[in-house]
Specification:
The protein is an alpha/beta fold. The protein folds into 2 domains: 185 residues, Rossmann fold, CATH 3.40.50; 67 residues, no CATH class. It contains 11 helices and 10 strands. The strands form 2 sheets. It has a 6-stranded mixed beta sheet, with helices on both faces. The chain has a 4-stranded antiparallel beta sheet with strand order 2-1-4-5, with helices on one face. Strand 1 and strand 2 form a beta hairpin.
Length: 266
């Protein structure tokens, strides 16, 4: 469903990405994680065709998007939903209008079907009473939840979430993660991608993590394996947030036994 092959991207004075290789199969749930500023958002923008790479190829659903016409790319992107870091809502539209706008341009649903979808998704993110509110009337967490609803309202084959819990409290973060999982659980073939700097969010969202550092993929695989068998840098990056946690919570996260044995007296 997703393939990035030898992607490179630089900005004036900065070589941000040098050799990014990522492949995600249909129905997979994957977390992209790395230090702040490592290029995670740029990877997503390249994947969406919002930023052009200087080298490499980008494929969505088996088709290279770099050589496509604008019309062809638009047709492919109708199968992709995106939730941006700060919600990315149109501030001059109500919540309902934001979701309707996406469906009007990306689906063939009738007006009644679109309205039913709006109300179902807003209920799913616990914001049923906000459909006639404007973004400036919403809190940061509410905007994120509306952004999630908009990313999923077109029933995309691929749904991408950029830092969906950044800056939010732990309770709200948990609610948002659960909502993404619940709302996307209707289709086993839906491919989900989350980019985050928070390793706890990354491992709670997906069993497979892709770690980006210094412009390359530093690791790719089941996070439990990487936490024990990865390079020293990968083990430290993934594990530092967990060391010192309450032991019961460590078990709840299903941290690997060798990692627990190393850092807790058990």
């Amino acid at each position: 469903m997703i393939e990035l092959d030898s992607i490179a991207k630089s900005y004036p004075g900065v070589q941000l990405l040098t050799d990014i290789n990522i492949k995600v199969e249909k129905g997979e749930r994957v977390s992209i994680v790395g230090p702040g500023g490592c290029g995670k958002t740029t990877v997503l923008k390249i994947l969406l065709g919002l930023v052009a790479p200087e080298a490499g190829d980008v494929k969505l659903m088996g088709q290279s998007i770099l050589g496509m016409s604008s019309y062809e790319r638009e047709e492919i992107m109708k199968n992709v939903g995106m939730a941006f870091q700060q919600g990315g809502l149109f501030d001059f539209m109500t919540v309902k209008e934001n979701l309707m706008f996406a469906m009007e341009h990306m689906t063939s649903l009738s007006d009644d079907e679109m309205l039913a979808t709006v109300r179902s998704l807003l209920a799913g993110v616990k914001l049923a009473r906000t459909e006639n509110m404007y973004p400036h009337e919403l809190s940061g967490g509410m905007k994120r939840r509306v952004g999630i609803a908009r990313a999923l309202c077109t029933n995309p084959s691929v749904a991408i979430f950029d830092e969906p819990t950044s800056g939010l409290d732990p309770v709200t973060s948990t609610i948002i993660l659960n909502m993404i999982g619940d709302l996307a659980s209707g289709g086993e073939d839906k491919t989900l991608l989350v980019a985050t700097s928070n390793t706890e969010i990354a491992v709670r969202f997906a069993s497979r993590v892709i770690v980006i550092n210094e412009g390359k993929v530093a690791a790719d695989g089941p996070w439990r394996d990487l936490l024990v068998n990865g390079s020293d840098w990968v083990k430290n990056f993934l594990g530092v947030r967990f060391i010192g946690l309450d032991l019961d919570y460590a078990y709840e996260l299903d941290l690997p036994k060798p990692f627990i044995a190393q850092h807790w007296q058990v």
